[in-house]
Amino acid sequence: MTVEDVFLLHQGRLVLASGRIERGRVRRGDEVTPVGSGPGTTARVAGIREGRHAVAEARAGTNAALLLPGAVTGGVARGHVLAAPGSIRAYGVFDAEIALSAQDEGGGEVRTGDALTCYLRAAGAEGVVTLPPGLDVLPPLHLATVRITLGRPVALEPGHRFPFRRHGRAAGCGTVTRLLG
């Protein structure tokens, strides 16, 4: 589940993390680990809510809120992923095939060392682009496989699609092709 909002309840003794479940299912009592900010603390799901109703389980495609113990307070934030322990990792470097928008739609030339804001799941992550050898500049309306080094690790999987911005303007979209570290 991608975390979209986090609320502290009962003076921080409980954490309510809401978001959309991407795949699988989650039940009360299942163990989940927040992925996206260092080593996550495994926690047991104390309750699940869909809208205003408490439910025993939530399945892929639904928006749900998971009630977790307060011990995970600092480890859950917007853009993190709550997943079964060991099922997904956070990466700081990845290869992606990117497509730049037209110049009048915000796209512009991209060079090695340019900063992009990649919107990976529910949060933006700053990244630096490295173009492939032999390519000095990537002009608008072109495709290329590039390496992106993020400022902080983010939960990623091959095939994940993402939009990105450059200088505060929508500049294009990409697809994660390879995870490196």
Q: What report would you give on this structure?
A:
The protein has strands at residues 2-9, 14-20, 25-27, 31-35, 43-44, 47-50, 53-55, 57-59, 63-69, 81-83, 90-100, 110-111, 115-120, 123-130, 137-138, 143-155, 161-166, 169-179. It is built from no helices and 18 strands. A hairpin with a 2-residue loop joins strand 17 (161-166) and strand 18 (169-179). It has 2 domains: 2-83, Elongation Factor Tu (Ef-tu), domain 3 (Beta Barrel); 90-179, Translation factors (Elongation Factor Tu (Ef-tu), domain 3). The mean pLDDT is 91. The chain has 181 residues and is mostly beta strands. This is Elongation factor Tu. One of its GO terms (molecular function) is translation elongation factor activity.
Overview features:
single chain, 181 residues, mainly beta, Elongation Factor Tu (Ef-tu), domain 3, 2 domains, 6-stranded antiparallel β-barrel, 5-stranded antiparallel beta sheet, 18 strands
